[in-house]
Amino acid sequence: KGELFTEAHDVMKRLMAEGYQAYMVGGCVRDSLLGRPINDVDIATSALPEQVLSLFPRVVPTGLQHGTVTVVMPTNTYEVTTFRKESAYEGHRRPEEVEFIGDLDEDLMRRDFTINAMAIDADGELHDPFGGEADLEQRLIRCVGDAEQRFREDALRMLRCVRFAAILSGRIAKSTWRALCHEKSTLVFVAMERVRDELWKLTAGADPARGWALLLRSGLLQHTKEQLGALASTESTRWQPLLCALGRVTSPELRLALLLLGHEVDEGEAKRIALALRLSGAQQDAVLGVLRAEARLAAGGNAALAAAAVPGGAQAWRRPFAQALFAYGEDALRGWLACRSALAGVGAAGEPAAAVQPFLQHGQAWLEDIPVRRLQDIALTGSDLLQAAERVAGPWLGHSLEAAWLAVALQEVPNEREALLKYAVKEWKER
Ligand code: ATP
Ligand code: MG
């Protein structure tokens, strides 16, 4: 994204033409030194927010009390923030009020880690007062200044520390780690939405196992405002195989589902954890869908998985499998297969891997071939059935449609209207 920097440059030039200082700062500096893709460029300036507002034709006063103005350029937007320091921290959170200052270095000093406390000026020169570049080369996460004090000021930084270690596959500096372990109980002051954002980025990143291993080792998650249950457990023998399996599924939703599955969390408790974590509706559906499929297919040593392990039972799994597909949808079933395969692949969750894996492979293959995926895919509608049955609508209708759908999915009846009508009418008469 060439324009991202060209336009950032234009913003800086405009500020500098008026005699203000302007730098690119924070995450974009870190990621560009790493050669990683950059989503947004943040700019720090000595100009006051009102001055920034008056200099650009299209501006949004996004966070004036924090000194942030969004400048809208033709293809990108930029957060332009006045140099500031955050003196009065209260309740282990970042302050509502900040003090504007005139000096870049002091602005960099309030930032959390050395790798996040660098700036690049309009000539492309790096300003790095805390040795961030060297730390970045070593993938070392180190607080700017006294780590204990920095974590005490804003407890979220502890979670950010683990997050950066995870996404960089990095290490945490000894003094920073010690401070984190010492201050961890102050995480209780942080809003769950902020916890979620960091946990989500950590889980979505390239090395989620690293992040979760550090969470486990520190015990940090035992101190969230709302309890995270099994996710905060420190029972490391249980965690070890799960950490190995974690990178074998790709989305953060499935990774979370995998951890819950591996800890044998039931659906009710999973729901509670999802709510505590303030997951969105879509995120909840994705996670809980997997746990629902688990309850239908594998929990309590029941049905499908067990049947698949018995000689001659190879076909027995098809019906519960199809029922789960009907009830929870294709995404849930695919997600469940992915999580179970990942767990079986590392011999986790007490699975006799050898017995389960062929079943999972069958399931996967079956899902590719299945003639129908949703109720709308069968050649029979509710009104067809109502007419033919000469009966008023009621719960029977849904049951019969489901039975017809299952018969097609299991290839017991061809997906043709006449055949299905006959089957469905017979089915409800016999019921
Ligand atoms: P990401 O790739 O997730 O956006 P980022 O480093 O840009 O990573 P942001 O939350 O966007 O993270 O913050 C931008 C910058 O603001 C950081 O690089 C850091 O310098 C500073 N910063 C953010 N949060 C804190 C905090 N809690 N304490 C101190 N400095 C912070
Ligand atoms: Mg950022």
From TrEMBL:
Residues 22-142 form the Poly A polymerase head domain. It comes from the Bacteria. Its cofactor is Mg(2+). Pfam families: PolyA_pol (PF01743), PolyA_pol_RNAbd (PF12627), tRNA_NucTran2_2 (PF13735). GO terms for molecular function: CCA tRNA nucleotidyltransferase activity. Residues 362-424 form the CCA-adding enzyme C-terminal domain. Keywords: Magnesium, Metal-binding, Nucleotide-binding, Nucleotidyltransferase, RNA-binding, Transferase, tRNA processing. Residues 172-224 form the tRNA nucleotidyltransferase/poly(A) polymerase RNA and SrmB- binding domain. The keyword Nucleotidyltransferase applies. The keyword Nucleotidyltransferase applies. Its EC number is 2.7.7.72. Belongs to the tRNA nucleotidyltransferase/poly(A) polymerase family. This is CCA tRNA nucleotidyltransferase.
